[in-house]
Amino acid sequence: MASYTYPLTINSEEEEVVREAAKQVNLKLNMYRDNFPTLPLERVITMVAYDFSLKNL
Fold first, then answer.
1. Total domains in the fold of the chain
2. What's the per-residue H, E or C state across the chain?
């Protein structure tokens, strides 16, 4: 995610969900980067986290 690798230990039955979650984060990250190209990556990541938090309330 965000050009970083995060090694995880997960059960094989969780792999599909974990990969989909990473895909969704990257899609949202790319959307924000396209809309706000001058913002530093850490600000964009914060916006992505906030966006997902709002959707899970």
1. 1
2. CCCCCCCCCCCHHHHHHHHHHHHHHHHHHHHHHHHCCCCCHHHHHHHHHHHHHHHCC
Structure pTM? Answer: 0.84
47: CB partners within 8 A, 6+ apart: 32, 36, 39
Rounded Cα distance between 38 and 31, Å, is: 13
Is residue 39 in some structural domain? Answer: yes
Domain residues for the domain of 55 are 33-57
Instruction: Please check whether residue 15 lies inside any domain of the structure.
Output: no
- The answer to whether residue 47 sits within a structural domain is yes
- Per-residue pLDDT, averaged over 26-54, amounts to 97
Taking residues 15-38, what's their average pLDDT?
96
